[in-house]
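A protein record in our archive is deliberately plain, so that people and models can read it alike. The tokens are whole numbers drawn from a learned vocabulary of local backbone shapes. For reference, a complete record is included directly beneath this paragraph.
>
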Amino acid sequence: MDTLSYKTVSVNAEGAKKEWVVVDATDQVLGRLCAKVAKILRGKYKPCYTPHVDCGDNVIIINADKVVLTGNKWTDRIYLSYTGYPGGQRSATPAILKLKAERKGIKPGINPLFMKVLKGMLPKNRLGAQLLKNVHVFNGPEHPHAAQNPKVIDINTLK
């Protein structure tokens, strides 16, 4: 029996095959969509998954303004943040974060609602911060990353 065929492959940052994928958020539930996107960002759908390496794909989310929340979560759910100063705790609902994403002064590709939800689903360390840079969220159907030749995937086919 050949024991060399049983070696575990551990991918490093240079050996990871990173691709670009496009996900359409139209009529998708926010939490379920972001859970699948977080798995794509980590690389858990790839056979060469390594937990401590950024081996996931770059994700472009389009039509982010058409995402759905069930129940009364648009107004009842509260996301907390802290400025670092005494009395600096701030709270925002998903409806407020969605309005912030529609302002013209915000950097393209950044959506506060998606970033807040995705950050909670990624590791709480330097790797999680690095993975969060691999997601680009746009409110409309257009995105400026056509030069990367992204492939469109149906998020409903993933487990």
User: Anything to note?
Assistant: The longest strand covers residues 20-24.
